Amino acid sequence: MIEEILLKIINGLYKETKSENLCMAGGVALNSVANGKILRNSPFKRIYIQPAASDAGTSLGVAYYIWNTILGNKRSFVQRHAYLGASYSTEDVKEFLDKNLVKYTQLDEKELGKIVAELIWKNKVVGWFQGAMEWGPRALGARSILSNPCNPKMKDILNIKVKHREPFRPFAPAVTIEDAHKYFECDKPIPLSADFMLMVYPVVKAQRKKIPAVVHVDGSGRLQTVRKSINELYYNVIKEFEKLSMVPIVINTSFNIRGEPIVCTPYDAYRCMMGTGIDYLVMDKFLIARKDNPRDMWDSEKLAKD
Fold this sequence. Notes:
Shape: globular
Number of strands: 12
CATH class of the largest domain: Alpha Beta
Mean pLDDT: 93
CATH topology of the largest domain: DHBP synthase
CATH superfamily of the largest domain: Carbamoyltransferase, C-terminal domain
Number of domains: 2
Helix content: 25-40%
Strand order of the largest sheet: 3-12-11-4-5-10-6-9
CATH architecture of the largest domain: Alpha-Beta Complex
Number of helices: 9
Low-confidence stretches: none
């Protein structure tokens, strides 16, 4: 019913405006299934939905209303990514790890993508903590859990070991932007909003058996497109995984357990890994194995938070 009502409103809006561009906001704009059908079922040719399209987005709206409308400044900013939240330097992360006597390996940035891809290919569950946190409800490669989409058991593994949620719920595929059309029946061009995990598209039938862990029961997937120009480190992990699997896709789900917010700080990330079945944590340039840090060696209440 929501899809029917949305399309009726949207088609009526086009008749009134004759604009080819559509912007959407509000909580319903987070309905990625409906979003994936809009361009195919309306005369609009371009759609844009910012990554915090719920009530949280009103903060952005009021800021730009003041900047553009009240103060009269020109509209020049284009939001191309969601990495606007808290960030922690290499020194910050190292200080946290050393304070808490965490065992880790420091990686060279050039080898980081290859090592993480190898862990994913070996069906390890990897907590991924890099750069500034995402703004909005979706994990987009800054505070994510990454795993192998080719393993048909991975959805159950993630639900049992980490997420503790209903078994029917699917996990999202993160795919490099240039490869998306090979695996998904996407709009052309793919809207930027797909970078924000706001579009669901059918998975190409011939490809479904290759990525069973990210194909929903109706044959669709809530993809996140990944661009090298926006998040090179994340992009490189996916391309390195492709060398091993022949598939330029990884599972990306939010770095949290059910009922808790996405992790923000090094403390949050380490605590989440140690309290779940996540096998490895990659925090900045540091690789932390849960097996090397026995739970009886630490007490989450005594961890130094900063």
